[in-house]
Specification:
Layout: H1 6-20, H2 38-57, H3 77-93, E1 102-103, E2 110-111, H4 113-134, H5 143-161, H6 178-185
Antiparallel strand pairs: 1-2
Length: 195
């Protein structure tokens, strides 16, 4: 059985493309993730993808704590992220779309397949946005993906706020599109700048 998850594929592509777009002198720039550099966000995002892989397959998880990324420069950031997203995608490919109980690395540690894959996609997509925003790249999220990810976010984010994984939600604004609505729900200002 191989299950196709277009939302996850789009989110992984967004993350990989954002990393590919980082300039050699941009790895230490600040990001919308308070007190984390571009390198640290990359390490966190890759680590989270490996955490999903490990939860689903029982395989090896990230080498370092995704919530305490070292910021140590990576020899090949693109390869680092590609390996992590490929591992997560392979794990999810073995999960049936109607599976009601998939092991995941976020509370409650078991989710239905659609919510679980949405949570995994959320992690990749939002950190793609963080990296793109910090390095002056175009916003990488589609309206369709943002709409689907927000559904998953509303299932998992509230308990994670208590652990500091997400900032408090920001108030919706008139004229917000689906991407802005997702970002505000996750405590991010769509108009964030490093200044």
């Amino acid at each position: 059985m191989t299950t196709t998850w277009p939302l996850l594929a789009e989110s992984h592509d967004a993350l990989l493309n954002a990393v590919k777009g980082v300039g050699a002198d941009q790895w230490d720039l600040p990001t919308p993730c308070d007190q984390w550099t571009v390198t640290q966000v990359l390490q966190h995002a890759a680590g989270d993808q490996l955490a999903y892989y490990a939860a689903i397959t029982g395989g090896e998880g990230p080498a370092e704590n995704p919530f305490a990324p070292s910021g140590t420069p990576l020899a090949d950031p693109v390869a680092h992220v590609a390996a992590a997203t490929e591992a997560a995608a392979a794990a999810w490919a073995g999960i049936a779309a109607d599976d009601a109980a998939v092991a995941v690395p976020v509370p409650p540690n078991t989710l239905d397949a659609v919510t679980g894959v949405g949570a995994c996609a959320l992690d990749a997509a939002v950190h793609a946005w963080d990296i793109a925003k910090a390095t002056g790249q175009p916003q990488p999220l589609s309206e369709t993906a943002a709409t689907a990810i927000l559904i998953a976010a509303k299932q998992i984010v509230e308990p994670l706020r208590a652990w500091g994984a997400y900032a408090p939600a920001l108030e919706p604004q008139d004229g917000d599109d689906a991407v802005a609505a997702l970002l505000r729900y996750l405590g991010r200002d769509p108009e964030w700048t490093a200044a």
